[in-house]
């Protein structure tokens, strides 16, 4: 089914009609996580944004090859102040193999992605598994004269490149303000110019993660892996490259320079970037102590969280904003999302009741034209640069209609009910990727659990009032066997669980 999908291209700074390089097929690369710690909210947004794109492209009939890498070398660029690889540092502190650290956090990242119902990518290449491809990229750039060697390290010659091409086309920066903004300390004294970036770094003697090369024992610069692995799995030219807006500069800017310097032209057709997430209006960062990881969201264990938030609440919250707008995560906003999602799922239950043959006769019949109109609106929203908030507002319209049906204020034929339910399911579950959560949130579970104990103890009160001591004692003893301590108080009872 052909859909006129418009997507915003960061490179052209406008929405463009999506046309794949090969009809019917899409190649898509998204920058994945660096695995030396738990995924946080900043990882959830690109994961969910590009999962939405992946799902929608497949839904409208494309065969998609979705590549998302695992950065298992903790590059110096992230932590220039200390000059030690982050994965190696964690390994040293915890007395583990570096690959043990990377594997541990890769597994946890996968768990979080599964909980958020993000489909796995088609290929998930690891940076450390593609050292040869990265060395080959560096060699090509050297051969074309856009890189130089300095003390065994190889740097990209940004000044030279900028004379022949333009450096900064993606971020809109020019070389002069790049030089001023560059505060990277690594390689000072080795680089010809401040704006130059490392393609290969010679390793210090204490550096654990290192590979042999013709230049030195060392490791690749951070930007190399995505260019090398994107090319390997998607070819010299592919359709979509995505990531968070924070990656536009320097990472993606450097990727473009590496591609042009090595093969003569750009690799990527559409650059897509999701906006960032703030927490209570502040940037996420160590200095604010607001780095909330996904497992902390799911169990509510971070001090900034008033409760646990289920993975689907997080997903729904992210989808409620357009991917290019900012999102501020606060408890109130999350609680509102939790309610919104519950409302949507309630609407789904009502719709299913309609389908199950519960005939409701009323005054205003809901016609097939209503469903067709709604379908068009839903596709229009998604085709307009994945406007998920508008799509969600139309799904709420379905819920509203479902309520009027339940309240017997309208009627519907079985055929229309079936069409409405099917449309709702396609967009809610297949495209937006929401799921029904059977377990509810931990908080809801705890509340229900407490209510059941209260209920039992109220029955015991009743038994006591009726002088049914046998029953009253049995309830107390059974609870005690389960680890509950029950106390009789002036007003009735209190209990605690001693386990
Ligand atoms: Zn990348």
Q: How would you sum up this structure, described in words?
A:
The chain has about 500 residues and is of the alpha/beta class. About 45% of the residues lie in helices and about 15% in strands. It is built from 16 helices and 17 strands. Helix 15 (about 440-465) packs antiparallel against helix 16 (about 470-480). The radius of gyration is 28 Å and the shape is flat. The relative contact order is 0.11. Residues about 75-80 have low confidence and may be disordered. The structure holds zinc ion.
What class do helices, strands and sheet pairing give?
alpha/beta
**N-C termini distance:** 57 Å
Identify every distinct bound molecule in the structure, by name, code or SMILES. Answer: zinc ion
Q: Considering DSSP H and I runs of 4 or more, what fraction of the residues is helical? A: 40-55%
Strand content: 15-25%
Question: Roughly what is the average pLDDT, rounded to an integer?
Answer: 90
Main sheet summary: 4 strands, parallel
Strand order of the largest sheet: 4-3-9-10
Helix count? Answer: 16
Count of strand segments: 17
Any idea what the shape is? flat
Summarize the structure.
The chain is of the alpha/beta class. 46% of the residues lie in helices and 15% in strands. The strands form 6 sheets. It has a 4-stranded parallel sheet with strand order 4-3-9-10, sandwiched between helices. It has a 4-stranded antiparallel sheet with strand order 5-6-7-8, covered by helices on one side. The chain has a 3-stranded mixed sheet with strand order 12-11-13.
């Amino acid at each position: 089914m052909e859909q006129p999908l418009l997507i915003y291209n960061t490179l052209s700074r406008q929405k463009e009609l999506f046309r794949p390089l090969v009809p019917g097929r899409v190649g898509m690369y998204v920058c994945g996580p660096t695995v030396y710690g738990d995924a946080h909210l900043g990882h959830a947004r690109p994961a969910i944004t590009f999962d939405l794109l992946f799902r929608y492209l497949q839904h409208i009939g494309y065969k998609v090859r979705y590549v998302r890498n695992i950065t298992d070398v903790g590059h110096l660029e992230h932590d220039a102040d200390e000059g030690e690889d982050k994965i190696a540092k964690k390994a040293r502190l915890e007395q583990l193999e570096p690959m043990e650290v990377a594997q541990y956090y890769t597994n946890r990242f996968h768990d979080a992605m599964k909980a958020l119902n993000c489909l796995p990518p088609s290929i998930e290449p690891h940076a450390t598994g593609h050292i040869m491809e990265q060395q080959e990229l560096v060699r090509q750039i050297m051969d074309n004269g856009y890189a130089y060697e300095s003390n065994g390290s190889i740097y990209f010659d940004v000044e030279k490149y900028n004379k022949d091409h333009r450096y900064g086309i993606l971020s809109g920066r020019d070389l002069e303000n790049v030089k001023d903004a560059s505060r990277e300390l690594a390689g000072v004294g080795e680089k010809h110019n401040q704006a130059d970036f490392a393609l290969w770094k010679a390793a210090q003697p204490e550096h654990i993660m290192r590979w042999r090369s013709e230049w030195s024992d060392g490791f690749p610069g951070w930007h190399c892996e995505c260019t090398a692995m994107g090319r390997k799995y998607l070819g010299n030219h592919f359709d979509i490259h995505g990531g968070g807006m924070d990656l536009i500069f320097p990472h993606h800017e450097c990727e473009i320079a590496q591609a042009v310097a090595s093969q003569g032209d750009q690799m990527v057709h559409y650059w897509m970037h999701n906006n960032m997430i703030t927490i209570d209006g502040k940037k996420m960062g160590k200095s604010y102590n607001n780095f909330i990881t996904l497992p902390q969201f799911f169990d509510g264990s971070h001090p900034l969280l008033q409760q646990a938030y289920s993975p689907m609440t997080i997903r729904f919250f992210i989808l409620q904003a357009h991917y290019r707008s900012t999102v501020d995560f606060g408890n109130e906003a999350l609680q509102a999302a939790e309610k919104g999602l519950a409302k949507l799922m309630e609407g789904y239950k009502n719709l299913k009741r309609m389908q199950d043959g519960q005939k409701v006769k009323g005054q205003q019949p809901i016609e097939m034209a209503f469903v067709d109109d709604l379908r068009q609106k839903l596709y229009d929203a998604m085709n307009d640069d994945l406007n998920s908030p508008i799509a969600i507002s139309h799904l709420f319209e379905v819920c509203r209609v479902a309520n009027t049906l339940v309240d017997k204020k309208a009627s519907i034929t079985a055929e229309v009910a079936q069409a409405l339910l099917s449309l709702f399911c396609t967009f809610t579950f297949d495209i937006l990727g929401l799921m029904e959560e059977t377990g509810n949130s931990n908080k809801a579970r705890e509340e229900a659990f407490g209510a059941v104990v209260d209920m039992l103890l109220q029955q015991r009160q009743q038994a006591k009032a009726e002088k049914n001591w046998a029953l009253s004692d049995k309830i107390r003893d059974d609870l005690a066997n389960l680890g509950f301590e029950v106390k009789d108080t002036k007003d009735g009872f209190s209990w605690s669980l001693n386990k």
